[in-house]
Amino acid sequence: MRIKTSSLLVAVSVASEVSALPNSAPWWKPRPWKPPHQHPFRNADLGPRPQFLVNDMDDGWLKDRLSACSEMEAWPSKFSIGHRGGACLQFPEETRESVEAGTRMGAGIQECDVAFTSDRELVCRHDQCDLHTTTNIVATDLGAKCTTPFTPARDGTPATARCCTSDITLAEFKSLCGKMDGSNASATTPEDFLRGTPSWRTDLYSTCGTVLSHKEFIKLVDSHGRDFTTELKEPRVPMPFDGDYTQERYAQQVIDEYRAAGIDPSRVWLQSFVFADVAYWLRADPAFGEQAVLLDESGDTPETFPDAVANLTFYKQAGVKVIAPPLPYLVILGANNEYVPSIYATTARKLGFKILTWSLERSGPLAQAAANNDYYYSTIANGTHTDGDMYRLVDVLARQVGVLGIFSDWSATVTYYANCFGLF
Ligand SMILES: *[C@@H]1O[C@H](CO)[C@@H](O)[C@H](O)[C@H]1NC(C)=O
Ligand SMILES: *[C@@H]1O[C@H](CO)[C@@H](O)[C@H](O)[C@H]1NC(C)=O
Ligand SMILES: *[C@@H]1O[C@H](CO)[C@@H](O)[C@H](O)[C@H]1NC(C)=O
Predict the structure, then answer these.
(1) Are the CB atoms for 344 and 325 separated by under 8 Å?
(2) Across-strand partners of 228?
(3) Residue 2: what pLDDT?
(4) What's the confidence (pLDDT) of residue 1?
(5) What residues line ligand 2, using a CB cutoff of 6 Å?
(6) Which of 67, 138, 331, 403 could bond to 150 as cystine, CB 3.0-4.6 Å?
(7) In 140-201, where do the E strands start and end?
(8) Minimal CA–CA distance to 268: which of 249, 289, 251, 296?
(9) Could you tell me if residue 369 is left (phi over 0), alpha (psi between -120 and 50 degrees) or otherwise beta?
(10) In 3-state terms, what secondary structure has residue 382?
(11) Is it the case that residue 324 has pLDDT exceeding 50?
């Protein structure tokens, strides 16, 4: 302590002598200063969370194996896909800040969900009509343009609002602040309506997230040398919109923006839940169709699940190469409550699909998620007790199901596993 204090004093006195010199030219060599956002993030900063999760695991070889990687140097991995930017556990989703934090945490592929504005520009939003929960729109003048402007809670009726990207222009969209997704059903004022962040997320970075157009997203992700995944969100207005803006024009616009930016199709994974969109990409531009991802949520109930499995054969015959079901479709519990691949997983593998899955780190503390029958853990709830179980899930997905990538709300969690097991 004394040493530090005295060296600090020396430094201070040197500095004051220097500033007293008549010639103001600096005696140190100034570092070349680069503005932020213009240099690529090369290595991956994983922070403390992977270690927290590993420490929380039950004893066993996987814990030992992951612990042994605690001092490794980490690099970006395409196995780690940034969901809504890859940091929306703590940063406002689909914003520059989430993309940058997810990129820092080693997401090798970055996601923008696209919706269109009234002037037919593509912007990153998870739903065409989520502006009232993901931005500050209701507390701005633009709130008046919402499909349903803010209505306060009254006599037990919850507060409402419904605001869509198609209600406003790109320029108007760009004036909004991205915030943590959520709203307050008891709000009597627009400002109170903005509050609704679960306690296990945070508002610390929800100061004014920079919302992005799809073109800005492409430029940002390209500047860091990462790959891209754009999801075409289902329109919430009847198509064609505004006269002649058809579903196919909308699907084509995504490709056009990548082509205009000079991005090689091998770096792009287009996604849609709608089979017709994927079929369009396969037909209209096979270079982009090659990696087009069919998102599947057709088997959410025990009644529909067998049909979803059966339909994989149909998709295969139709030329789909990449399938992306949610986590619970792929992993179930075995006889001893261990995690094992499901019939969906083994069928998709047998058919030769590339498989991606979504989404890790959306469920908060896992003991609570399992008890509440959280969607993502619904098929493994009885075998899930602790946050460390997340790495058992990732391990089964990686080594037994053979997924190519996992979408995560906190990219470091997946990047750590990928680096430890050499998945790039
Ligand atoms: C929700 O809104 C009500 C009424 O405006 C307010 O009293 C309450 O504090 C708000 N909740 C939060 C979490 O801000
Ligand atoms: C199979 O997929 C096609 C195309 O998405 C759909 O029309 C059909 O309803 C699906 N069948 C089942 C049984 O889910
Ligand atoms: C979990 O266990 C409970 C109690 O044993 C049982 O009722 C329930 O069906 C199980 N859930 C699943 C998804 O297997």
Answers:
(1) yes
(2) 110, 268
(3) 38
(4) 36
(5) 275, 298, 307, 311, 314
(6) 138
(7) 148-151, 160-162, 177-178
(8) 289
(9) alpha
(10) helix
(11) yes
**Of ligand 2's atoms, which has the minimum distance to the CA of residue 298?**
14
| pLDDT per position as a tens digit, 337-396 | 999 999 999 999 999 999 999 999 999 999 999 999 999 999 999 999 999 999 999 999
Asked if 299 contacts 270 with a C-beta cutoff of 8 angstroms, the reply is: no
Indicate the top mutation candidate among 329, 337, 339, 382 to test ligand 3's pocket, ranked by most ligand atoms within 8 A of CB. Answer: 382
pLDDT band at 416 (very low <50, low <70, confident <90, very high): very high
Nearest Cα to Cα of residue 212 among 102, 322, 340, 361: 102
C-beta of 195 in contact with ligand 1 (< 6 A): yes
Distances from the Cα of 60 to the Cα of 64, 154, 253, 338, 413, angstroms = 6, 54, 49, 13, 19
Rounded distance between C-alpha atoms, residue 47 and residue 86, angstroms: 14
CATH of domain 3-126+206-420: 3.20.20.190
**Amino acid (one-letter) located at 327:** L
**Which ligand is closest in space to the CA of residue 370?**
3
Contact 337, 306 (CB under 8 A): no
